[in-house]
Specification:
By secondary structure, the protein is mainly alpha-helical. It has five helices and two strands, in the order ααααββα. Pfam families: HTH_3.
Length: about 100
């Protein structure tokens, strides 16, 4: 099976936590509904493979790396102007809208 289609609810929650993302933000980044994210993370239903791939791709685009063991991690520190700066900029754009 293609590893892009492998993602557990626990991995999704952990990756969101690392990025400090809400379900709404993940849904927007993956171009899915918040209900799809919520149902997946709460174990209500498993999304279709292409939706899992979209969720995983959104995480990877944001810098998340899934280790061989499946644990999500951020290889760069938040002090380097990467993720933390991106989150602050996103919040400012949301406040202006």
């Amino acid at each position: 099976m293609d590893s892009r289609n492998l993602l557990s609810a626990d991995q999704s929650r952990a990756a969101r936590s690392l990025l400090n993302w809400s379900r709404v933000r993940l849904a927007a980044k993956a171009n899915l509904s918040e209900m799809t994210i919520g149902d997946f993370e709460n174990g209500v239903r498993k999304p279709r493979p292409h939706n899992i791939a979209a969720i995983r791709q959104a995480f990877e685009d944001a810098g998340i790396v899934f280790t061989v063991e499946g644990t999500p991690s951020l290889p760069r520190s938040e002090g380097d102007g990467g993720i933390a700066t991106d989150n602050r900029m996103w919040r400012r754009r949301q406040e202006k809208a």
